[in-house]
Amino acid sequence: IVVLLSTCSAHHPLAKPTIFPRSSSSSNIQFSQKPLILNDNLSFENIHEAAKDFGNIYHFLPSAILYPETVSDISTIIININEMGTTSGLTVAARGNGHSLKGQAQAYHGIVIDMKSLRGPEMQFYTGELPYVDVSGGELWINILNESLKHGLSPKSWTDYLHLTVGGTLSNAGVSGQAFRHGPQINNVYQLEVVTGTGEVVTCSETQNTDLFYGVLGGLGQFGIITRARISLEPAPIMVKWIRVLYSDFSIFTQDQEHLISSQKAFDYIEGFVIINRTDLVNSWRSTFNPKDPVQASQFISDGKTLFCLEMAKYFNPQEIDFMNQKVDGLLSELSYIESTLFLSEVSYVEFLDRVHVSMLKLQEKGLWDLPHPWLNLIIPRSRIHEFAQEVFGNIITDTSNGPILIYPVNKSKWNNRTSMITPEEDVLYLVAFLSSAMPGSTGTDGLEYIFSQNKRILDFCKSANLGMKQYLPHYLTQEEWKIHFGSKWEVFLRRKFTYDPLAILAPGQRIFKKGK
Length: 517
Ligand code: FAD
Hints:
Uridine Diphospho-n-acetylenolpyruvylglucosamine Reductase, domain 2, Uridine Diphospho-n-acetylenolpyruvylglucosamine Reductase, domain 3, nine-stranded antiparallel beta sheet, 15 helices, disordered N terminus
């Protein structure tokens, strides 16, 4: 087919495609009077799918979706768009699993590349010393886990939810309870293959095309599309001891968390969350966890209280169970939680890592997964976390019924400063995630407007108290705000943009750069 597209508007380059009869076997699309030769993987159907994401707040309709079979499909379309220059305004967004929160994987009137179609070639494992796996940028982490386990191996650093793609999490950071010892996922990658914003296919690593390698890691999709990644692996455990304990005092809670992350040999996973006014939540743990003291635990209520839950996990193999239990008992004896609130569970490694998927299936059943998700993710320096907690958990948030609030520390020394990821400058950083769901149409405390206003109060407080906070999965509407976000790293970010994507074609949904400006 030959598709002639409206030629003049920089903002609506593909707004009104006119389709002409097929003239040759290859598809031929014309933008701004310049022909673009395409393979048959470009589709103008189901484009609404690419205007959705997990956030379910922003919906930017693209003009087409590319389902690439090969890396060359991606590079060809980018080269062609470059050849059109800035007049077409046409942009390209790689879409992993579309679990962004604010339209970051969308491209208004542009082309969305469905990275999951690029799953092949098959994963390649290297099982020698320093094992790794080569995977497609569109691969889901859950698939990597399942394949790695067949070799007795596993990636080291995770996200809480595994149905996200490699390219999607490596464009941000990829953080979970393992990050205190292994750093985020972007620190556990040996090599990448990237299609830059000029369409060049480049292999990069710590020693090869280093600038691009570090630029792309945490680079919000601005410098290239990750088509392949080499992920570092370690021997996989079989089982996990999974533990939750409660605190009513924030200082004691954080003291214990910080004590645990200071040792690389204590637990394998450390997170935490805030519970305000949720007795039902603590009771719901009983389906997975056994309380150490069932009588006391059954009398436990959290109504009217703010509690802090420390969550820990210790990996083990069944033959080491006694040794592991002794070790865990020793570690727990160093902590100062409320004694009657020790909850224990033993699950398989996969069950533990894929735990959020179970909740996701339950929410899906109840029609509660596809709600708007006005999430807010912050990184707070340790020196200011008490001030933050006092205001936010003491004044702003009055209950946690809209969704979980995670809070846990990580060691900054495990994060490579050379990546594009921005964090505050301090040895210990707290990740604080407000994972709210909003009820459509509600004007009450579970409505979008209310949650947005709460998020704004939190952000305003961080700003007015000058906490040195940085957003994770950041979202800003102006370049001025982005400059403040990047701080002293803005110049490097800008230089990399000019070098690798000079026409600002890539990832327009991040709203950092605008094509033609
Ligand atoms: P998408 O949303 O599809 O894309 C995200 C961004 O990356 C877009 O800008 C897109 O253009 C770009 N991109 C996508 N693929 C590529 C590629 N191959 N090359 C270059 N750029 C690309 N994050 C954490 O760190 N820790 C967590 O524990 C965590 N838990 C989560 C749980 C849930 C339920 C959800 C919805 C999100 C969670 N996140 C977490 C956030 C998540 O890591 C990011 O939203 C991530 O971007 C989602 O991956 P995705 O594959 O869906 O990416």
